[in-house]
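Supplementary Text 2. Reproducibility record for the structural model of the 217-residue chain.

All settings were left at their defaults, and a single model was retained for analysis rather than an ensemble. We include the record here because the model underlies the residue-level annotations in Supplementary Table 4.
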Amino acid sequence: MEGPFIRIEDTGEVVPLRPEITTIGRGRGVDIRLTDPSVSRLHAEFVRRGPYLYVVDLGLSRNGTRVNGRPIARRVLDDGDVVSFGAARGRIGGVPREDFVPEVELRRAAAPELTRREVDVLTSLCRPALSDEAFVAPATAREIADDLVVTEAAVKQHLLRLYQKFRIPEGTNRRTRLANEVVALGLVRPTPVVPPQRSGGAVESQAAGTPGGRRAS
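Retained model, structure tokens:
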């Protein structure tokens, strides 16, 4: 088989990797589908750049991605590396050998300069992914527009500029790749959820209505 491939440990299946990006996970829309419940619906992706291959954890899984047992965010792969997605594993083959140190993760570029509105868009984009769910996709343009009370067209224009600033290439899962990059750079962090305050056994927001906690009609 020409080019890089992954051999799935559980089944022995050998799957060639696409020329640019190969997605892997448990969902129906991925290129390589794994059935192990510890794998997220969209868990990680393989990226080919010339003769090089690296794996990117998409940052939306509790169980993460490992290479040869070590947790990674993004790492260049060498022939024979074992990549784990939760409890599922596969061995990489077909990667040309070269004199470099594969253990070194790719360095992330410095964060680009952002406007206040771009920060608002990124915060809204990443908010679902920072929840406690095992996997939640980033917000859609429509959801961001509703959150920020702006038009969907305006959000799409902001996203296009952000893809350029963060150098996110065209292709599938572009919003997810942008969200992953933003979270990895620490530009957006989880916002703690403040539970409603209770007073006298009733939630204050309810007590603010009519007596007895009933809301006025």
